[in-house]
Each structure stands twice: as C-alpha cells, then as structure tokens.
C-alpha cells in the first residue's frame, strides 16, 4: 500500500482535520492542530507530505522517526502537532486495513470504560454551580474550571479570595458529591501559585492543572512539596523527551499529553508507559474535536494509569461547531454515567462526514486566543 495524498481541512470552531489517501482506497483521518496556529500546522503537514507521498503507511514507526529526526530542528508545538495528526491517520489506516480498532493493535483493552470530565464556567469562571447542575443531569460527576482570572506576578488578597470563593461555592452546593480540577491555565506566577494552592487546600480539588507555565516546570516539585492536591500538566509539552524531565524531577501526579500536540498515538502511548513507571496517572488533554478524542480513547483503553478523559462537549471554545458535528457515527461516542466506552470499529472508529467537512472548511475561522492585558497595559497570561 502507498500513501497517495494528504488533504487538510481547517474547520469551525478552531480545528483542522487531515485526510490521508492510499492507492488501495483506504483512507485515514487525523486532527493535527495547535489552537490559534492552524495555518502554521497546516504548512508543516504539507512540508512533511513531500516525504510521505509514495511511502508505505504501515511503517508507522519508521515514518514517525523520519518526521521527527529527519529534520535537523525538531519538537515544539507546530511540528509535533503536524506529526500527531499524521500519526493518528496512519493508525486509522492500519486498523482499517487489518479490520481492527487501534486499541487491539496496542495489545487490547485494559479497562471496559473511562471516566470523562467536562468543562464548566468559561474563560472567567462564572455560573459554575449552574453549569455543574446541568451537566450532572447528563451523567457527569467530574468537572474542570479555570482556577482564576488574570493574576499578577504578585497579586492581592481580593484576587486570591475571588478564586477561592468560586471553589467554596462549588463545595457548598455539592459537597463531595462531585469532583473538579482547577486549571490555572498558566495564568499564575510561581509566587502566587504557592499562595493560591495554600488557600485552596481545604477544598481538596481533584487536581490543579498547569499551576505554573510549562516553561516554569522546575516549580512543579516545589509546589508539590507544599500541598496534598495532585498537580497535573502536559498540554504544553510535546514529546517524551520533555515529559522525561518532569517525571525525573517529580512533582506531577497526572500527565496530560495532548494526542494532537505531542506526536500522536505513537508518542503518547510511550509517554503513558513512562508515566506508569513513575506511578504517575495519565489524563490526556483534549479540548479539540472527535478524531483527537478518539485517539485519546484508544490510548486510554490500553493504559492502566489512565484515570479520566477530557472532552470538549459544551466547552466555551466550541463556538460554531460542537464535538460530534462532523461525525456520522455519533452513537460510538455515547456516554453512559459519565463514562466513554471503547470505539470498536476498525481504525480510530470515527466515521467523518466528509461532505460536511468540505462544506464547512470553506468558511473556516482563523481562531485566535484572547490577548489579555493587566490594567497597567502589560500582557497578562490568558
Ligand atoms: O482544555 C484545557 O485544559 C485548556 O487549558 C484549554 C487550552 O488548552 C485551550 O485549548 C488553548 O487554546
Ligand atoms: Mg489546561
């Protein structure tokens, strides 16, 4: 079998799908994208396609190594997201060619279901109690919200109290009936992370995500030493070589590689195994579309240390399209009691409505994340 064509479709809300065609008519789909830099990833995919066209799609490991090591410069969000989407599509082709779901190619199921969690509250956490009430009605009992709004490098007690108050309202309303992660979203400096975490400790969030920016990863072990709250990170790390360092340094209780940013199934399967060897949990990051989610689920279903799965239904970023809009087989993503179940169709198990994809790609937005500034005009982390 040979790869004959790669076609990219930038799509609402802020996604990009990749279709890889072969000379035997088998087609694979992937989701290479960095939110806000879709065109950059698209260019990287097409640069990589110069080598890929004519190659045997079955040789995923060799193609992955060529895409990663064949260029002198490597790693980072753009290149690793391009590799990720191509890798997803190659696994999709392999599964379809052999008539089995990807998880079977990775050794079969290690579990029968995986817990999902849902975002509440938007960019600036608000109406979180109402949001949780609505989502509990459809089976969720685990949630994630932004831990705070903008936070200065050294900020005041009122800002800290505002963040803590949101969490206090959740515990007041639901007690321990529900669990929630707090995503600091990299908005918080190392000094303020210490202050915030101390004040949040009594409310026992399930985890605190990106308490500092990935470029401040040396603080993870120091923050972990001051708190019992599990610390999570990973959406802005892009290869096992980055995850190696944070595992070695300690401090992270949960790794959150993104299957569309960190080299795809081939790389994230290895990252999951590395995490397990350090007794660290896996919770793949996935605020994206259905192909990315399917890739996450296949890795979840073969990784014993997978604990819960992010998904983007109702996420505040999905303006203009929802998680399953482009999927024909929506029932395969059906959730029961807040859990996903294995995708059992061959390949990734996602049947894409190509006609709709082509139609909607004609008006793809160039989504950009908001640029936040402090009152003094300096740039704030979003
Ligand atoms: O889902 C998460 O955990 C996030 O932090 C969302 C962030 O990754 C945005 O997708 C960036 O545009
Ligand atoms: Mg996050």
From TrEMBL:
It catalyses: D-galactonate = 2-dehydro-3-deoxy-D-galactonate + H2O. The record marks 258 as: Increases basicity of active site His. PROSITE patterns: MR_MLE_1, MR_MLE_2. Binds 1 Mg(2+) ion per subunit. One of its GO terms (biological process) is D-galactonate catabolic process. It is an enzyme of class 4 (lyase). Keywords: Lyase, Magnesium, Metal-binding. It comes from the Bacteria. Pathway: Carbohydrate acid metabolism; D-galactonate degradation; D-glyceraldehyde 3-phosphate and pyruvate from D-galactonate: step 1/3. The active site is at 185 (proton donor/acceptor), 285 (proton donor/acceptor). The keyword Metal-binding applies. Residues 125-230 form the Mandelate racemase/muconate lactonizing enzyme C-terminal domain. The record marks 310 as: Transition state stabilizer. Reaction proceeds via an anti dehydration. Catalyzes the dehydration of D-galactonate to 2-keto-3-deoxy-D-galactonate. This is D-galactonate dehydratase. The lineage of its organism: Bacteria, Pseudomonadati, Pseudomonadota, Gammaproteobacteria, Enterobacterales.
């Amino acid at each position: 079998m040979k790869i004959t064509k790669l076609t990219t479709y930038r799509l609402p809300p802020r996604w990009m799908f990749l279709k890889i065609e072969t000379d035997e008519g088998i087609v694979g789909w992937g989701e290479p994208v960095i939110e806000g830099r879709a065109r950059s990833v698209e260019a990287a995919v097409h640069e990589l396609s110069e080598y890929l066209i004519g190659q045997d799609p079955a040789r995923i490991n060799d193609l992955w190594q060529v895409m990663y090591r064949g260029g002198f410069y490597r790693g980072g969000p753009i290149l690793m997201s391009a590799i990720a989407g191509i890798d997803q599509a190659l696994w999709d082709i392999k599964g379809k060619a052999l008539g089995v779901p990807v998880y079977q190619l990775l050794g079969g199921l290690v579990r029968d279901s995986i817990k999902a969690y849902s975002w509440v509250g938007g960019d600036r956490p608000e109406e979180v109690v109402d949001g949780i009430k609505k989502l509990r009605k459809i089976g969720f009992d685990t949630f994630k919200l932004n831990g705070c709004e903008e936070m200065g490098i050294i900020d005041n007690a009122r800002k800290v109290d505002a963040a803590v108050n949101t969490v206090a309202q959740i515990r007041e309303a639901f007690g321990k009936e529900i669990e929630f992660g707090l995503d600091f979203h990299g908005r918080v400096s190392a000094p303020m992370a210490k202050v915030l975490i101390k004040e949040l400790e009594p409310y026992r969030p399930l985890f605190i995500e990106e308490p500092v920016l990935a470029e401040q990863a040396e603080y993870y072990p120091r923050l972990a030493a001051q708190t019992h709250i599990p610390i999570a990170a990973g959406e802005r790390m892009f290869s096992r070589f980055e995850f190696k360092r944070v595992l070695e340094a300690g401090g992270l209780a949960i790794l959150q590689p993104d299957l569309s940013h960190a080299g795809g199934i081939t790389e994230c399967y290895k990252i999951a195994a590395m995490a397990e060897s350090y007794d660290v949990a896996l919770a793949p990051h996935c605020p994206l579309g259905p192909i990315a989610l399917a890739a996450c689920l296949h890795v979840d279903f073969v990784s014993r240390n997978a604990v819960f799965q992010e998904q983007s239904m109702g996420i505040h970023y999905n303006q203009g399209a929802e998680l399953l809009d482009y999927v024909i087989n929506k029932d395969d993503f059906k959730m029961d009691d807040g859990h996903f179940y294995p995708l059992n169709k061959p390949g990734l198990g996602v049947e894409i409505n190509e006609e709709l994809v082509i139609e909607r790609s004609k008006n793809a937005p160039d989504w950009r994340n908001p640029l936040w500034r402090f009152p003094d005009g300096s740039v704030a982390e979003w």
